[in-house]
C-alpha cells in the first residue's frame, strides 16, 4: 500500500497489473478459476470483467470438499487469519486503482459513492471484522484501515474538485462545493431506499462494522476531553442503529450486509463508557435506544422482516441479545428509567401515540420472551422496581 502511494496508477499500470493477475490466476489455480471478460452495460453493477468465477460447477463442488483436496500431497493447511488479511489488503488495493478507469463517485441524481466502489469498502470492513479480534500485528492492521480511509477521502475530494456542472452554476463553486469538501466520504453510501446514515468519520463506520480493537486503538490515541467527546459521539451508533433504508449494494451481492441495520458488538459499550461516554448527557440517546428495540422484537417491524428474509434467525437473535445488553449498560451508566417515551402504533387512520415510562416500555418489549427473563429481572432491579417475571416457562 505504501509503495502504491509512491507509484500512482495510470491506465497502462492497471492494464499491466490485470495481465499479471491473469497469469498468477492461471498458474496458481490450474484452470479451476478464471476471470470473465466483457463489460457490463449497467453502471450500477459490478463489471463482468472484474469477476473471478469457477470454470464449471464440478470445479466449484470439488473445491468445497476440503476433506478431499486437503489430503493431496503438498497441500498445506490455510491460515484463516492470513487469508482474511490478504483479502482485506487486496480489496484495499483495489480501492486505490478503482478511480483510474472510472469515477468512484456519482453526482446524479445526488452525490454518492458508486455502488460497486462502496461494495469494495464493505468487503474491506467484512474481512476486517473477521480478523479484528485475532490478528497479532495490530499496528499493521490499523495502518491498513487508516490508509483505506485516507484513500477514499482523497478520491472523494478529487472527484468533487474535478466535477464540471452541466450548466453554469455559480452556487456550485461558492457554496455547495466548499460544503461537500468538508464532509466525510462515508456519509455518502449509495442507497436504493431512504437516506444514507450521517457519519462524521471512518471511526463511525468502524463502530457499525464491529471493529472493536480498531476503535479501541484509535480512541486510546486521544486524551482528555477529546477522547470523551469522541466516545459520546460514537455511543448512539452502538445503542440505536439507524435501521431504515436499503443500500444500493444489496442488488450487487447476495451476501451484502447493511452496516446500519445491526446492533454492533456489545464489547464496544465498555470501551466507550471507559473512555468517558455517559448515558446522562443526551436524553434523546436513551429514547432512541429504547425505540430501537422495536426493530428486533416487534412482529410488524420492517427491519425484523428484512433480517428474517435475508439471513438466518441467528442474526436476529444476535441483534436482540445486543440490544438487551445495550439497554442494561445504559441503565448502569445513568439512564433514567422514569423518562417518558412517546410511542406511536398503528398506521394511517389507526395510528395513535401514547406516552409510557421507560421502565414500562422495557417490560412491554421483553415480556413474553422467556430467553430474556433473567435480564428483565436484573434491569428491573436496576430501575428500582422488583420484577415478577416467571423464570421457568
Descriptive overview:
The structure is a single chain. The chain has 393 residues and is mainly α. Among the domains are: 1-77, no CATH class; 80-277, no CATH class. Helix content is 54%, strand content 7%. The protein contains 18 helices and 8 strands. It has a two-stranded antiparallel sheet with strand order 1-2. A two-stranded antiparallel ribbon has the order 3-4. Strand 3 (105-106) and strand 4 (112-113) form a beta hairpin. The longest helix has 25 residues, at 138-162. The N and C termini lie far apart (56 Å). The model is unreliable at 40-49 and 386-393 (pLDDT under 50).
Number of extended strands: 8
Helix and strand succession?
Answer: HHEEHHHEEHHHEHHHEHHHHHEEHH
Helix content: 40-55%
Q: In whole angstroms, how far apart are the ends?
A: 56 Å
How many H/I helices?
18
Nearest-angstrom radius of gyration?
Answer: 24 Å
Strand content: 5-15%
Would you tell me the overall average pLDDT? 84
Numbering strands along the chain, what is their spatial order in the largest sheet? 1-2
Low-confidence stretches: 40-49, 386-393
Biggest beta sheet summary = 2 strands, antiparallel
Structural class: mainly alpha
Shape: globular
